């Protein structure tokens, strides 16, 4: 047996050597675990000499846990970057040639408190901030700068976050599964907590802190009441103890009916004094165990979850009850606006606005209403939610989805920063031109101090955290934009690629190019021209023909409305009139089918198959062209990836290359499904310049059924 192991090891070694021999410039084998914190040795000799000039000591006068983490990170980073173990001292005094943490008295608002400055001062690099968190963020910024081998000489970085609460939302369950998770199981090992604390929690915290993320909701919005039990509060506390060291507060999703199901009360009416007392006691119990607990995230009266409306109360009543329970503490209530009633005649697009706008001004100041970026549900492209700007008396937070529920799971490469940016830069026009969504959520438009941005996490127990190696970039991009929404998608992609994949410029350019186009390519074969597909099921397989569901808005046909006349959802005055929820200037962009930009066309109009579009093609022809060009462009992505091959880690290269092949196959699957199905309505041939699918609609349907089989 022993001999067999030795032999296996030997042949494994030979294989590795062979791989390296054929690929001499590729870096060492990497499993993706280190994310963008790889701290690969500095290769630029002059830069290394400069870095060594500041590597005599790290001066940290503070005794706090968070500056302790900053110190540890800097020591680890420098050891790996320049090969030197840098000693820690408490004060620099007159010494020069080191890095100094300088904590200043707090004067500004919460954003200023988390900001930092980095600059050379009298022979040292000084990281100054008004809080320990600021020092930590500054440390990570310095390390990022050094990983990119930038000089320190004229370094002057000054940065403050634009949004106060920058959070991840995990949709993780007690049984270790993750709702809409595609990278393995949950990283939270509930069954072994609180006794065993997985070291991975600390690496998770480091990664988030490196981006400035300062809060995390540990569990699914479809929450289990168990999280409010004493047993789970103890488990949560063990995780919170780790996250705290990195400036991250822990939050929990709550099951609104917990007073009844867990507490044994008759009901969970938010105006019932017994229910209110139950929550007040529960909150006190939580704070006793987790003194810096962040607060609650709530999905109520949505998709079957319980809520205040079960007792004839409003969302404001429910949220305010929890806010009252949190009053003695620092915690907040994040109340989700993702609601839509099962009304067969309604347009789901309009639901959140109709329920929430009338409540504007009724929420307790501790409440933030968290709104998904679009009015429906995390589609590859959506217009911005009309709630943004229309609740001036209520702080609205942004909810983006990082996990790729509608973006091809972990098989398709879709870089999401362009999606995030598109929404943030949309103009609501509520206070005239320039009233962007970003200004709504950063509080500058309506003067909110409590501002929030959340991303539904894409992390899991896979060794590389996100399944698809390129999906790490989406976690990274979310965090960077949460800190500063003015960064460009390109800048973030370039940064991430350099930190994570390769320092070689040419290869980086190929990868960045591919990342920047990836979302449009995906939309091309998946939801071109403003189609959407939030139908029920696994949210992956193409089923545009699905017409039966528990409710109309859980079918595919509800959304695309294909018929013999044309395609698309009429949301103008002749249809659902959802457009009226936007300001006139926004309506003007989308009201007229002749002027609506093609990417949004079918979101707002039912367009006839033969209508000539701005592109010069008819709707049918344009649709075919986009489906084909999307699917074909996956081959172009494969080429870009190949061009970078020699500068990539061998494992990461092979992993992505394999996934791109899957993406190519599935892109054709989507293309054929839409095309063959919609052809039954358009009754037109595929344009002559394109090669028609080599299978029938029935064959595609069969393959989908097999895919969906248990
Ligand atoms: C939908 C997901 C569902 C979530 C829901 C939500 O399919 O799993 O529970 O959103 O955000 O997109 O509450």
TrEMBL record:
A Pfam family this chain is assigned to: Glyco_hydro_67C
Domain Alpha glucuronidase N-terminal residue range list: 35-142
Highest rank taxon of the organism: Bacteria
Range of residues in the leader sequence: 1-21
Domain Glycosyl hydrolase family 67 C-terminal: 466-688
Catalytic activity: Hydrolysis of (1->2)-alpha-D-(4-O-methyl)glucuronosyl links in the main chain of hardwood xylans
Name of the top EC class for this enzyme: hydrolase
Keyword line: Carbohydrate metabolism, Glycosidase, Hydrolase, Polysaccharide degradation, Signal, Xylan degradation
Gene Ontology molecular function terms on file: alpha-glucuronidase activity; xylan alpha-1,2-glucuronosidase activity
PANTHER family linked to this entry: ALPHA-GLUCURONIDASE A
Subunit structure: Homodimer.
Similarity section: Belongs to the glycosyl hydrolase 67 family.
Protein name per Swiss-Prot or TrEMBL: Xylan alpha-1,2-glucuronidase
The organism of origin for this protein: Dyadobacter sediminis
């Amino acid at each position: 047996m022993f001999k067999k192991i030795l032999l296996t090891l030997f042949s494994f070694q030979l294989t590795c050597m062979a791989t390296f021999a054929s690929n001499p410039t590729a870096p060492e084998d990497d499993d993706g675990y280190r994310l963008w914190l790889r701290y690969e040795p500095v290769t630029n000799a002059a830069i290394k000499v400069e870095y060594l000039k500041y590597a005599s000591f790290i001066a940290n006068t503070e005794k706090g846990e968070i500056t302790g983490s900053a110190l540890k990170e800097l020591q680890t980073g420098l050891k790996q970057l320049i090969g030197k173990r840098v000693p820690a001292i408490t004060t620099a005094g007159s010494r020069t040639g080191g890095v100094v943490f300088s904590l200043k008295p707090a004067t500004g608002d919460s954003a200023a408190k988390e900001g930092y400055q980095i600059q050379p001062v009298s022979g040292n690099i000084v990281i100054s901030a008004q809080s320990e968190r600021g020092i930590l963020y500054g440390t990570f910024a310095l390390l990022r700068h050094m990983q990119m081998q930038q000089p320190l000489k004229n370094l002057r970085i000054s940065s403050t976050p634009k949004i106060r609460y920058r959070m991840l939302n995990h949709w993780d369950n007690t049984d270790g599964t993750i709702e809409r998770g595609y990278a393995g199981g949950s990283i939270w090992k509930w069954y072994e907590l609180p006794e065993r604390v997985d070291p991975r929690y600390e690496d998770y915290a480091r990664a988030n802190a490196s981006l400035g993320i300062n809060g995390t909701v540990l569990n699914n919005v479809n929450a289990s009441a168990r999280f409010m039990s004493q047993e789970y509060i103890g488990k949560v506390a063990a995780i919170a103890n780790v996250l705290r060291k990195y400036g991250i507060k822990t939050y929990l999703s709550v099951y609104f009916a917990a007073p009844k199901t867990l507490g044994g009360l008759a009901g969970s009416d938010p105006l019932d004094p017994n229910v209110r007392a139950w929550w007040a006691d529960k909150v006190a119990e939580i704070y006793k165990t987790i003194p810096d607990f962040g607060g609650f995230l709530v999905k109520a009266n949505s998709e079957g979850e319980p809520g205040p409306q079960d007792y004839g109360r409003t969302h404001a009543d429910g949220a305010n009850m929890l806010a009252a329970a949190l009053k003695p503490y620092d915690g907040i209530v994040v109340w989700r606006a993702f609601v839509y009633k099962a009304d067969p005649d309604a347009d789901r697009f309009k639901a959140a606005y109709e329920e929430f706008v009338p409540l504007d001004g009724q929420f307790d100041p501790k409440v933030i209403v968290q709104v998904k970026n679009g009015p429906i549900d995390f589609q590859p492209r959506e217009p911005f939610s009309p709630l943004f700007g229309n609740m001036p008396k209520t702080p609205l937070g942004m909810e983006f989805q990082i996990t790729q529920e509608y973006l091809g799971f972990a098989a398709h490469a879709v870089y999401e920063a362009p999606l995030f940016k598109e929404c943030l830069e949309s103009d609501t026009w509520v206070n005239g031109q320039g009233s962007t969504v970003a200004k709504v959520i950063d509080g500058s438009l309506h003067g909110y101090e409590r501002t929030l941005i959340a991303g539904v996490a894409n992390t899991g127990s896979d060794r590389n955290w996100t399944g698809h190696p390129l999906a790490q970039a989406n976690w990274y991009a979310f965090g960077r934009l949460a800190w500063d929404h003015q960064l460009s998608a390109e800048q973030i992609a370039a940064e991430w690629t350099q930190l994570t994949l390769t320092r070689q410029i040419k290869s980086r350019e190929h990868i960045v190019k591919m990342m920047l186009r990836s979302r449009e390519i995906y939309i091309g074969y998946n939801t071109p021209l403003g189609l959407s597909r939030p139908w029920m099921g696994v949210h992956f397989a193409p089923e545009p023909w699905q017409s039966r569901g528990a409710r109309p808005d859980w079918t595919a046909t509800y959304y695309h409305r294909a018929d013999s006349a044309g395609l698309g959802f009429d949301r103008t005055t002749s249809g659902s009139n959802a457009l009226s929820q936007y300001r006139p200037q926004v309506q003007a962009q989308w009201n007229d089918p002749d002027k609506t930009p093609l990417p949004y066309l079918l979101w707002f109009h039912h367009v006839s198959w033969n209508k000539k579009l701005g592109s010069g093609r008819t709707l049918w022809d344009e649709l075919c062209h986009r489906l084909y060009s999307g699917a074909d462009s996956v081959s172009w992505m494969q080429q870009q990836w190949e061009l970078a091959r020699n500068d990539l880690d061998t494992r990461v290269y092979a992993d992505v290359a394999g996934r791109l092949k899957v993406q190519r196959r599935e892109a054709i699957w989507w293309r054929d499904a839409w095309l063959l199905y919609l052809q039954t309505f358009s009754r037109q041939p595929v344009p002559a310049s394109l090669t028609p699918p080599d299978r029938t609609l029935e064959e595609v349907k069969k393959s989908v059924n097999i895919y969906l089989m248990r």
